[in-house]
Amino acid sequence: MKMIWQVYLSGEIHSDWRDEIAAAVKDAELPVELMAPNTNHGDSDDCGAVIMGEPGNDFWRDHMGAKVNAIRTRTMIENADIVVVRFGEKYRQWNAAFDAGYAAALGKSLIVQHPAEFTHALKEVDGAAMATCETVDQVIEILRYVTTGVLNR
């Protein structure tokens, strides 16, 4: 029986990197099932208030949304074999750093992807990672190698 690897894709939501990984996984027929947080920014921000009611101030509104989203995020990270965390060039992704730390604390295999200019700022995150990449292609090649044993030369 072939193992199906559970891969959680954490990080920035302002580009199509998850779609690129999904297409590459499908094209390469990798034994991978992808999981991700809710990437609809509005729904992610509004979920707590919509479901449980407006709390009256922004702090508690964000707090409620973060906790509801954490149910999904924590469950998927805990069930993942590999966690990929991408730090994009737009915005600071504090949630991505938190996910990376959570995954590392759980002993998950962690792949981090970010531009070279973020290396110093993310040195602790990179230090916890099993691999640090600059491109989606590098992430795919790591997934290919670890899930199939095939080194694509």
Automatic annotation (TrEMBL):
It holds the Pfam family Nuc_deoxyri_tr3. Gene3D superfamilies: 3.40.50.450. This is YtoQ family protein.
